[in-house]
Amino acid sequence: MPEKQLVLAAYEEFTPNFVNHTWHLPRSISHRYSELGFWQEYVRELDAAGFDFLFLAEALGYPMTDDGAVPDAVIREAVQMPVLDPVALISALAATVDRLGFVVTASTTSQVPYLHARTFTTLDHITAGRIGWNIVTTDQQNALTRLLGMDAVVPHGERYDRATEFVELVLQLWEGAWEDDAVVADKAARVYADPAKVHRIRHDGRYFSLDGYFPATPSPQRTPTLFQAGTSDRGKEFAAAYAECIFTSYRDTASAAAHIGDLRARARTDGRELVVLNGVSVVVGDTTAEAEAERADLDAAPSRDAAAALFLGWTGVDLSALGHDTLLADLDPQGSKTTFALWGDNPATPTVGALLDQITSESGGFKATGTALEVADQLEAIARDGDIDGFLMECTYGGIESHRRFIAEVMPILRERGLLPAEPRGGSLRERLTASATPRLAAPHPAVKYRH
Ligand SMILES: Cc1cc2nc3c(=O)[nH]c(=O)nc-3n(C[C@H](O)[C@H](O)[C@H](O)COP(=O)(O)O)c2cc1C
Fold first, then answer.
1. CA 48 to CA 29: how far, in whole Å?
2. Which domains does the chain have, with CATH numbers?
3. For the whole model, what pTM was predicted?
4. How far is CA 117 from CA 27, 43, 58, in A?
5. pLDDT tens digit string along 109-156?
6. Which atom, in ligand 1's list, is nearest to the CA of 56?
7. Is the shortest distance between the CB of 229 and ligand 1 below 6 Å?
8. Ligand 1 pocket, 338 CB below 6 A?
């Protein structure tokens, strides 16, 4: 019996064309992304298969240049546009399945803590404790200024200062505003809640101020299960302080193990353990050759224009305006340092041209390609050597079509090896993913200091 069992999540965005840029392939079904039935079919099959959760990534805007122009390729090829609101989608899907969890991204740079806290409490109520929040600090500076009308572009380091204050404030609302026994719901006494046990919160900080009561009664987890994916030094410091689960996108096990080891060590100094999920794209074939041919088709699917637009969206760096011989080392991105470094520090792609070629075949995390047995072997080795606790399963053809062969052919092998639980995990998202014995956050998480 292996020491730990893998956590499995489907990795999506509410868009027809996430990560792999394959919506136009004959087998792809993601052009139906705006139909509720597309998602309902998806989550029903994930739920039945024993996936732990669906993760909906979220971007505030779409790729645009500093002067607000949107490259034609963005609209023509659906590069992070169109994109719809994932929170609204989760509300509908929560009623479709009653076991699968949901994790959704929300940005501390664009949201208002009070409203954000209420939205996630609502989601936690209606999912009965199955919601997680992926905390991001938003690297889309142009979206912040041009679409949301925010005055200042917040530099990378300062975004994490703001994130820290944001998270401390929402933790206080979730954990400290209502005592556990504040809701009485005594009809005979006409007492819905005990005013002595509902507390006024006062916060006057550098970025946010609030003076009032939190209007949402405590939900099963109170604080949603906390995820984070920052990989810069500040990002890691923040993740180690607050996150329970981490998303990474490594493509080789040595880099994954080094990064994840560093994160775990930081969290352990505070007595906390982290659960780490890395992206993986799976292609299963009847033979190795068949799977490799399919992988080659998928790798060749995105156009160079789409690659440049995608990169613009990730980093704010417009490669389409640069000569293909430009050295990446000469660029200084103010946007997402880590995403840029992941590509820009690679000696195999020293120039813009080389990078564009690479992006068309490599985005996301690991690639597991082969027969069902070979894929199971590859995933087992990646998890072991990369120090990874689970996988974010990337879409290949969109929707459930991305995962059908994995579910039917690979999951039974992983289950037989003891790498997946015999029965799907249930309960709150927190209990399912972490060692927590209750739906609530436990000490030594900093949230507990706000409890009464
Ligand atoms: C697997 C994974 C998922 C991510 N999902 C999102 C997302 O949904 N929205 C977003 O704005 N950023 C997302 N990010 C970006 C990270 O939040 C973070 O900004 C990025 O890794 C850069 O790290 P840094 O902020 O430490 O420089 C994701 C990153 C990874 C690795």
1. 20
2. 7-299+366-450 (3.20.20.30), 303-362 (no CATH)
3. 0.94
4. 40, 25, 17
5. 999 999 999 999 999 999 999 999 999 998 777 888 899 988 766 677
6. 8
7. yes
8. yes
